[in-house]
Design brief:
The protein has 3 helices and 2 strands. The chain is flat, with a radius of gyration of 18 Å.
């Protein structure tokens, strides 16, 4: 959504955005660019298809924008999940 909004604001000829994600658990020791060194960690591989007559500079910029979207930023930042039990409905 962030990519499409950006392209629309710039009046770029983006017709469609497709995103495919793959998730896997990998050994931290097998990840050269990860901070975690022990145990397993989650790896998400993302493949983005930009449909439309965009030039190489536009495609590169839209890839950068994809990395700034709120979902991407959430997934790449430290995440705390605090769960509590809600009262049952009467």
């Amino acid at each position: 959504m962030t990519v499409a909004l950006y392209a629309r604001r710039k009046n770029w000829p983006l017709e469609k955005v497709e995103v495919r994600l793959n998730h896997a658990k990998i050994h931290a020791a097998d990840c050269a660019d990860c901070e975690t060194r022990e145990g397993k960690l989650d790896e998400i591989q993302s493949e983005i298809t930009l449909v439309g007559p965009l030039d190489d500079e536009q495609r590169a910029r839209l890839l950068q924008i994809a990395g700034m979207c709120p979902v991407h930023r959430t997934l790449t930042s430290e995440v705390k999940i605090r769960t509590k039990l809600a009262a049952a409905a009467a």
